[in-house]
Design brief:
The protein is of the alpha+beta class. About 30% of the residues lie in helices and about 35% in strands. It contains 7 helices and 8 strands. The strands form 2 sheets. It has a 5-stranded antiparallel beta sheet, with helices on both faces. Bound molecules: coenzyme A. Coenzyme A binds next to helix 2, strand 5, helix 5 and helix 6.
């Protein structure tokens, strides 16, 4: 039975959202630059908060699911740093699987997003054997572009996502696995 519930990196634990994470996850989604782009743009903060308890319930019910959300935790202190996700972009199809990483404002610029993203790319390509992973970003979201570049994603054109015009980046298994062997 595969164990996709928890990944460990040099400085981080990625684990499934659990009861007790509500406040931290809701607070993270309330940060202005998290809600500024794409899926969360213009969504009522109360609605964003409402989706957290069901997400925790689902994560607890299916901890070993291939996809979903992981909380990013500081291995040394157990502190909450953010969350990341690997999820099919379109319901009912896993042809296009998307990476997302969201850090609390005080947890940025220390390489945590790159470290968490690296763990999820290993999961995507080594365990799930996906042919490619997608990353999307609004044009002015420079930090996301830099993160995708550090993870070796390359720009593959444009996409309309959640009513927004976004850049579409992809990383292929061939582009990732040789760097990690
Ligand atoms: C996107 C996001 C996660 C990127 O966070 P980040 O802190 O810039 O990325 P990392 O944690 O990988 O940190 C890398 C930066 O820390 C620096 N750094 C400092 N110490 C470091 C260390 N020990 N190891 C690695 N990098 C380090 C790097 O040089 C890099 O700086 P740069 O971007 O100026 O080149 C963050 O901006 C965010 O949460 N944005 C809002 C949410 C969002 O829009 N997410 C995108 C959904 S896909």
């Amino acid at each position: 039975m595969p164990n996709y519930a928890r990944f460990e990196t040099r400085r981080l634990i990625l684990r499934r959202p659990a009861p007790g994470d509500e406040t931290a996850l809701i607070g993270l989604d309330a940060q202005s630059d998290v809600t500024a782009y794409l899926a969360m743009r213009g969504v009522d903060p109360a609605r964003l908060a409402e989706r957290i308890p069901p997400r925790i319930e689902l994560s607890q019910k299916e901890p070993d699911a291939e996809y979903g959300w992981w909380v990013i935790e500081d291995k040394a202190s157990g502190g909450f740093l953010g969350r990341c996700l690997l999820a099919p972009m379109w319901p009912g199809s896993s042809d296009e699987v998307e990476l997302g990483v969201y850090l609390g404002a005080g947890s940025r610029h220390q390489g945590y997003a790159t470290e968490a993203g690296t763990a999820l790319m290993d999961h995507a390509f080594k365990s799930l054997k996906l042919p490619h992973v997608v990353g999307c970003t609004a044009r002015d979201a420079q930090a996301v572009r830099r993160l995708l570049a550090r993870l070796h994603f390359t720009k593959q054109g444009r996409i309309t996502l959640y009513g927004d015009d976004a850049d579409r980046y992809t990383l292929t298994a061939e582009g990732w696995l040789p760097r990690r062997s």
